[in-house]
Structures are given as C-alpha cells and as structure tokens.
Amino acid sequence: MQIEIRQYEQRDAAQAAEIWNEVVEDGKAFPQMEKLDEVTGHAFFTEQTYTGVAYDAATDELVGLYILHPNNVGRCGHICNASYAVKKSVRGQHIGEKLVKHCIAQGKTCGFRVLQFNAVVKSNTGALALYKKLGFTQLGVIPGGFLNKDGEYEDIIPHYHVL
Length: 163
Fold this sequence. Notes:
single chain, alpha+beta, Aminopeptidase, 4 helices
C-alpha cells in the first residue's frame, strides 16, 4: 500500500464519512455521538479549516482522514485542534502517524502556532505513544472527562505541540 495524503474533495464524502463513523461507533475516542452520511459528512468536512485524506495511491481507496480547525477564537485563535480517523482494516500501519505529521505541517501553513488536543482518552494507548514519539507535551489529566460508549467515564489527557 502506497499511502499519500491530499486535501478532501466532495468525491471523498461517502468514504470519509464511513471511516469517521467507525470511530464514532467505537465510542472510545471521539466526543461525537452522531454518525455522518454523505451529505452531512461533506458539510462537516468542508467547514473545517482543512480536511486531509489518506489514500492508497494504487487503488484511490481512502484509508484515513483528519480535520483541522481553530481550537478557540480571538486571542486564542492561533491554537488549532485536530481529530484523526483511520479505517479499522488498516490500523497499525503508521497511517495515523502520517496523518499527524501532515496535520502539523498543514497547521503551520494555515497560520496556526500551536496544535492542541483537548481530549486524548487514557485508554487510547496507541495515540498516547504516537504523540509522545512526535514530541507532544501532556498537560495533565482531566478525571472522568470522557464518556465511553458503555456509560463509564474515563480520564482524558490534553496535549499540545508548538508548530
């Protein structure tokens, strides 16, 4: 598989929504509970500052995506936030790492100065290891900050990276 990353286009809407929905349905990482369809997905992905899609260059199949947008407004508008989703069938192949690295570069291009993750779930050990590897700084722990799909609350660990 030859993974490349490019900007989201309308033709990606169905595949991107499907990948996004896998993470939402898992209920272990995203705060969102509502699934997207092709129409709502396209609206959501285009309202972001940037949506990047990872695809297999040989097949043009989408295998992951990220959304990038301001974390706040006004005097804190230079801080961005992002979310990443990788298709279940190809997880563990460093696609998430490629997405995060691309996002860091794109964040700079968009004029942001800091990338902040508000809610990295404590049990998301793969993401925690990746963010450590890429030089993100942990900001502490918010006890019970995430409601898992099973109704249990779990700690979240905010992170940031200076761009």
